[in-house]
Specification:
959 residues; alpha/beta; 8-stranded mixed sheet; 8-stranded parallel β-barrel; 39 helices; 32 strands; 16% strand; binds adenosine-5'-diphosphate; binds magnesium ion
Length: 959
Amino acid sequence: MGKDKTRKTVYTFGDKKAEGDAGMKNLLGGKGANLAEMNLIGVPVPAGFTITTEVCTDYNALGREKVVEMIRPEVEAAVKYVEKIMGSKFGDKNDPLLLSVRSGSRASMPGMMDTVLNLGLNDEAVLGIAKKSGNERFAWDSYRRFIQMFGDVVLGMKPDSKEDIDPFEEIMDTMKEEKGFELDTDFAADDLKEMVKRFKVAVKEKTGHDFPTDPWEQLWGSVMAVFDSWMNERAVYYRMLNHIPHEWGTAINVQAMVYGNMGLNSGTGVAFTRDAGTGEDLFNGEYLIDAQGEDVVAGVRTPLQITKEGAQRWAVLANVPESDRVAKFPSLEEAMPKIYNELLETQQKLEDHYHDMQDVEFTIQDGKLWMLQTRGGKRTGAAMVKIAMDMLKQGMITEKEAILRCEPIKLDELLHPIFDPEAITAAKVLAKGLPASPGAATGQIVFFADTADEWAKKGHKVILVRIETSPEDLKGMNVSEGILTARGGMTSHAAVVARGMGKCCVSGAGSLKIDYKARTLTIDGVKHKEGDWISLNGTTGEVYDGKIGTKDAELSGDFADLMKLSDKYSRMLVRTNADTPNDSTVAREFGAQGIGLCRTEHMFFEGDRIRIMRQMIMANDEAGRREALEKLLPIQRADFEGIFEAMQDLPVTVRLLDPPLHEFVPHEEANQKQTADDMGISVEAVKQKIADLEEVNPMLGHRGCRLGNTYPEISEMQARAIIEAALNLKKKGIKTFPEIMIPLTGTPEEMKMQELLVRNTIATVFKERNDKIDFMVGTMLEIPRAALVADKIAESAEFFSFGTNDLTQMTFGYSRDDAGKFLPVYLEKGILEHDPFQVLDQVGVGELMKIGIERGRSARPGLKVGICGEHGGEPSSVEFCHTLGMNYVSCSPYRVPIARLAAAQAVLKEEAAADKSKKKKTEDKSKKKKSKDKSKKEKTKAKSKKDEGKGKKSAKKKK
Ligand code: ADP
Ligand code: MG
Ligand code: MG
């Protein structure tokens, strides 16, 4: 570090030459690498140089003096290089070269770090500039901008909080008031001179020093300040949120200034080569005449549209008649046709070169166009898909590139209803909570699940508003358009259940005051009654007043094409977690190839079933339980028939009853009374029974296969319901593939016992019906011990499905329901990089999975393995499951497309890695003339892994 004399720390660019290129983002940052690249492809870019990210790391370790000493010779040489190209001299009185100092890290961190423009100005240089340009106003406007930016960025005069006013803004506002001006362009040269004077006074007052006049002092100060900005609070926070390592550091770009503030023949703007909102292949952007730097985005004046078409579209929305538009809001295309054509060509050249939608910055100096930045443009999920598929059709990218170009998680935006874009602009935000489950919802406020159900039956659209939700609210949640809670985080009951249902949810909106008795919701002192309309945006967490129109998700066209393409390349199948025929149908539309987890307990909450269920739980003996189970059997069988039918021809994994029984018991007085009546016992007896069922650690208590082994009649009834349903459908010519899954096994013995019970029951049913079908019995792998003894368990399990929610819970020893107290702190302090309940912990939990699969397949080769925890729809976890050689992942219906894309990407990334190592191997081989490429052989072996034997798609996939 810093000692290596030969290491290059500065890379120059200019005049269509450059020492760096686009491939050097790590060293030069995104901005620097692309400035170099633009030079190389002949785009006009002001000359400059980039100080590498390594220097930033040195700066943080060694401090200012050492670093200046280290890079001074290279920086001085680079400034000379720029002087030569630009034909002016840094620090000269008559013809000074002015510079910009710009940050630029590997990953874009918009607005997080600082920029200084017009560097090199002082009381003498400003006169030189004025004389040379013949434009006094421009010279003084540049000077005041420089003092302002240097003061804010380098001298630390930028206010810390939003309440404080920037001292320079304050002076400008005062002067506008004094003069009766509206816009900063109203100031004349003399006003700007006065402004500079006042700015300098403010600097002296605030810092105790005069504004530095020496250009080199200005330059070094700015460079160090930009390095410092890498470590400023908001940049550190941004990196934490986006998982960007602090070690990366920022590069610094020092570049000759070009001036958009030279008058009416100058300007500056930003543009996109395609529409970042919709993906439409339409060049668009905004510009301002006689402006500099960030004036366009900062909103100092209303920017104008670049293209005529854009301007006309804008005018329609803004209600401006065409004649007015032409006179007052001309497009660049109309105002400066020559420059516009040049810009149009340049943007096309950039897009053709980068094969991606570009976001560009440009400046027009006295009729000449300069490009200042290009980068892959940020875009919405819809635009992401459209652009990738359009570029594929246009032959700009390959199929594999199109797949890799799309970020799986962003597909989410496309799968849920959205607000009508026009209606939302007029809507009023009432409160903000957590974006717990995406989508848009509008409906009438209800506070109770029962009310939701009643109202929904009458055809009302409702939003269920609760302090928090519990399993008892399930039915109400299911019929609501959306769910809003005052308490609870991203993994609260409301959030998890809503995501599973693909239902919009805003959780933890702390400013809500809910009065269940009065049935009112108060926000900021304003009361909303039951029946009032509100709207939720589950993607942003915003709560709106009133009714706002929504639009359904569009699943055809480009989206469908992308999905088809993904399936062509992926090896793993994607199934869904679904508990109802309706969920199953939705998931099938999203391309699910079976059900990986059907939770039978969810069926027990619906309608009158909970009453029978309660009788079963509260029964004192087996006979009592059997009586209740007898009543549940036909209900369950009908449920399974519905689900199997919706999933015909595809496998369905049904998990036997899993949760602790007390989750089903009545907690509310009225329900306790009802149970007492149903069972013909006293309310006291019911209460006593509830107390008996209470557990200290329910998640580690009487649940899973422990229920099935202590009360075998429950498993018996369920196995019977499943198989009878399948046989009933077989009669109708509908093919089913039931897979019965035993939950929570930890020892081979408890698995064996359940397996025998299930198989014996099924044998009985087959005999009774004199018919049979194919089925499987397997287990959920969710207890660490099960992974360790997986070989023994696999003797009685025909398949494994990793239940990574419980497996994570038990591997970490974190209770998912209590993790809210410490997980946020752990994430903030960097003890954990991700929430392990959202992103699979590959190192720990993943190791157990690896062991489980290896040992399981050692005892039963070809053992089918999948995952059914929340992680099954999280892209990095899906990729990991692929590397473990799983047959499928299963996730909630709305995550199915995300998982399909992630599964395809997993294959492509693996291929790329294999190609790379193959290349390296061949290089080594040619060097040493060594033996066979062994790793390649292993790769092919891993790839020939078989798909599931069932389902119509099983014949797909190749390789
Ligand atoms: P950010 O990363 O926040 O976009 P930039 O370094 O791109 O910061 O600079 C901020 C603004 O200053 C941009 O509008 C950019 O175009 C402008 N700018 C930067 N360097 C120059 C320059 N040499 N001449 C003219 N304008 C510049
Ligand atoms: Mg900026
Ligand atoms: Mg920029």
